[in-house]
C-alpha cells in the first residue's frame, strides 16, 4: 500500500490551513496514495497565544472540516489529522479525524494530555477516556494515536493486540534538548515492540520539530522528512509484516494483559 506523510507549519488562519490540507490531499491522491497522515492541531495555531486553540476551535460540523469533507468527495485517499473542537468548561477537545470520500470514518479524543516539559495541555483541553476504534484501509488494519500518546507503550500495545498492523500518529512535537532523539527513539520502539508499521507526522516551523517518519515492523526508518514543509511517499508491504511477525511473534508470546 502506498502512503504519504505530510508536514507543514500551521497558521493562525483556519482558511489558509484548510487550503494547504486540500492541496496535500489532492497531491497524495494524484500519486495513488491510499493514506495521508498530517500533523496534530491543524485547524489553527498561534505560537504566541496558547489559548488560541480555544478561540479558534470549531465543531465537527463547522466550516473547516466541512471544506475538507467536500474536497475529499472525489478522492480515494484516507486523510488523518487532529483538530480542536469546543468542549465544556470553556475548553476544547483534541479530536483525531479520519476522513475519505466525503465521510468521517472515525474520531478519537486524545487520551494523554501533554502536561510535561513546563507545558500544560490540560489547561485548555479535556482528555478523552476511551481507546479509538480500529480503521481498515485496503488490507491493513490501522490503530491511531495522538502526539503524547507515543510515550505510553500500553496504548500502542493495546491497539496491536486488538489487531492493528499500522499505527498512525499525528503530532506537534515541541523542540527542545534531545527532543528529535526522543521522537525517533519512541516511534521506532513502538513499531518494533509491536511488530507494526508506524507513520508519525509532525508539524514543522519555529516551535515544532517536523521530522515526520515512517518505520517498518523491525524498527527501521523507511522514509523521513526534514524540518521544512514536505510531502513524503513510501510503500508498506503486508507480506513483509507477516514475515516479521512469523520471525518475531511477540504479540503471541505476550502473557501480560
Automatic annotation (TrEMBL):
InterPro entries: C-N_Hydrolase, C-N_Hydrolase_sf, De_GSH_amidase, UPF0012_CS. This is Deaminated glutathione amidase. Residues 1-238 form the CN hydrolase domain. PANTHER family: DEAMINATED GLUTATHIONE AMIDASE (PTHR23088:SF27), NITRILASE-RELATED (PTHR23088). It comes from Rosenbergiella australiborealis. The lineage of its organism: Bacteria, Pseudomonadati, Pseudomonadota, Gammaproteobacteria, Enterobacterales. It holds the Pfam family CN_hydrolase. Belongs to the carbon-nitrogen hydrolase superfamily. NIT1/NIT2 family.
Amino acid at each position: 500500500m502506498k502512503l504519504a506523510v505530510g508536514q507543514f507549519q500551521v497558521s493562525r488562519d483556519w482558511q489558509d490551513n484548510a487550503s494547504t490540507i486540500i492541496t496535500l490531499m489532492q497531491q497524495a491522491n494524484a500519486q495513488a496514495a491510499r493514506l495521508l497522515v498530517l500533523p496534530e492541531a491543524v485547524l489553527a495555531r498561534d505560537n504566541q497565544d496558547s489559548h488560541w486553540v480555544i478561540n479558534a476551535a470549531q465543531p465537527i460540523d463547522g466550516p473547516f472540516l466541512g471544506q475538507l469533507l467536500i474536497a475529499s468527495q472525489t478522492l480515494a485517499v484516507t486523510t488523518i489529522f487532529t483538530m480542536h473542537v469546543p468542549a465544556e468548561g470553556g475548553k476544547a477537545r483534541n479530536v483525531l479525524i479520519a476522513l475519505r470520500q466525503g465521510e468521517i470514518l472515525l474520531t478519537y479524543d486524545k487520551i494523554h494530555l501533554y502536561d510535561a516539559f513546563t507545558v500544560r495541555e490540560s489547561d485548555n483541553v479535556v482528555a478523552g477516556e476511551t481507546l479509538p476504534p480500529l480503521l481498515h484501509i485496503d488490507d491493513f488494519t490501522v490503530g491511531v494515536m495522538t502526539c503524547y500518546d507515543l510515550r505510553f507503550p500500553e496504548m500502542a500495545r493495546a491497539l496491536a493486540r486488538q489487531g492493528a498492523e499500522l499505527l498512525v500518529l499525528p503530532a506537534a512535537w515541541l523542540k527542545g534538548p534531545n527532543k528529535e532523539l526522543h521522537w525517533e527513539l519512541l516511534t521506532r520502539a513502538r513499531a518494533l515492540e509491536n511488530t507494526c508499521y508506524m507513520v508519525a507526522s509532525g508539524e514543522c516551523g519555529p516551535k515544532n520539530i517536523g521530522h515526520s517518519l515512517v518505520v517498518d515492523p523491525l524498527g527501521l526508518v523507511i522514509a523521513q522528512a526534514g524540518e521544512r514543509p514536505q510531502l513524503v511517499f513510501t510503500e508498506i508491504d503486508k507480506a513483509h509484516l507477516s514475515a516479521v511477525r512469523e520471525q518475531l511473534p511477540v504479540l503471541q508470546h505476550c502473557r501480560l494483559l
